[in-house]
Structures are given as structure tokens and as C-alpha cells.
Amino acid sequence: MHQILDRLILSDLGQANDPFFLHQHDVQAILYFGDGGLFPDDIKLYNRPAQADGTLTVDMLRDGVTFLRESLAAGRRVLAVGPSGATIVAAYLTEMGFSPAQSIQMLAGVHDRGLTPDVSSLSEHAEDLQRRSRLSLGHH
Description:
Blueprint: E1 2-5, E2 8-11, H1 13-16, H2 19-24, E3 29-33, E4 44-48, H3 58-73, E5 78-81, H4 82-95, H5 100-106, H6 119-136
Parallel strand pairs: 2-5, 3-4, 3-5
Antiparallel strand pairs: 1-2
């Protein structure tokens, strides 16, 4: 387990499936791209199948970040699971104003647990944010 923000935790599937762990850390929402997993009914769950290679599509990344943002805004304590969870957490941090490099640095210590974010997806997301920002400001 790695606490990223006050109400944002990153872990592997083993911890996400552990009712004692979830209760101990007051987890109220889980973000998980993958198969398997036995999650309690009283936890808000965002679960989608992963792609065969484990990467996230642009839509998957955007949907995951939206779930994360909305859950945190609602005051829930969120557990993001696995490498895709790490990628979504880093993308969320990038949306908060951190550079992709800073976002990855904030996840320091998770790499040795197999929770490394996908740098390519994160870079694409940051570029997409910049594009949308320019378009919303009327610049092309």
C-alpha cells in the first residue's frame, strides 16, 4: 500500500481483496482495471476489464480519472489498484497541475511493488490536457 494523498491509496489486488485491509484503511471506493477481485458490496466500485497487454486506452484513462475525481470530490477514500491504477493516479495528479515527471515522482516507492505507471499513457494524457486547454482558451 502506498498513500498518495489524504484520501487516495494505491495498492495491489491482494490488498484490495482483503476485507480487513479495506476496513482498516476506511476504503470507500475502488478503481480497478482487470479481471477477478472480490469486493464488498458497500464500496463504490469502478471495475473494467483490462486490455490484453495491460495498457489503458485514452477513454479508459479519462473514465478512470473522472471516477477518481468524482469519488474524491464526494469525500470518499479511494483505493486505486495495480499498474493501471498507478497510471490513473499519475494522470489525476497531472490534471491537478503537476507535470508528468512530478506526478511520477509523487508515486516514488511504488515501482518496486509492481505498481509502475505507464509513462507513455501519462504523456499522451498530459498532451491531451494541453490540447484541450488551448482549445478552451480559443487558441489553435
